[in-house]
Predict the 3D structure of the following.
Amino acid sequence: MKHVIQFSGGLGSFGAALRVAEKHGTSSMTLLIADTKAEDEDLWRFADDVSRLLGVPLTKVADGRDPWQVFRDQRFLGNDRITPCTTWLKQKPCRAWMKEHAPIGDSIVYIGIEKTKRDRARIPAIARNWRPWRVQFPLCNRWEPELSKEASKARLMDLSRWYGIEPPRLYALGYEHNNCAGLCVRAGQKQWKLTLDVQPEKFAYAEGQEQAIRDLLGKPVSMLRQTRQGITRPLPLSELRRQHQAATGPCPSAA
Ligand code: SF4
């Protein structure tokens, strides 16, 4: 049986890989990771550390584009509901690898969904997306209690340090996930404000990319929306920055 970990470079898939290693060993394990060309540099340090710990090389797949290029090509800006970046940069390359290397009857896909209320709600859709392969969620065992997101993250960070691996730096900066360097199009206002505070240069980059797509499409598209007095409008990152800076003052590190 082939045990294929969908390894995102985050703590959840790290925890899943450890559980699979405990149960099945690592001789038939694959750490399959999609390079979105937009990851935080420290993700690759963490991924290499995990690979060394388990003695399993990373199996990297890549479309070759980054999310912004996908949005330009698709003439569509991703948002919290529709993410062509995931489809093109993660799902398609990973499924192509699976088709070639992981026979359906002899392979199990493992996903690092944590046992939190919000994450568990995603399980049916994820399992559907991976059909016809069998999918398991090693961190969602029946006999374990459901945790808050904070408690789950703290537990996985402790586990990582216990194995001598420093967790990816984005968690210490306050992010819930280690994906696309904190610039995920699915993130809400809270995370984008965090990015403005702790990674202002990356926020400025995303703001510029979003504006370039608005110019390309000739439409006021945006990743975020804002509802005021019952009316929902697009909220471009430039406007979010103005609102946040008006509320808190300019970020000192941006000065
Ligand atoms: S992490 Fe976010 S931005 Fe990156 S590919 Fe997935 S949905 Fe797109």
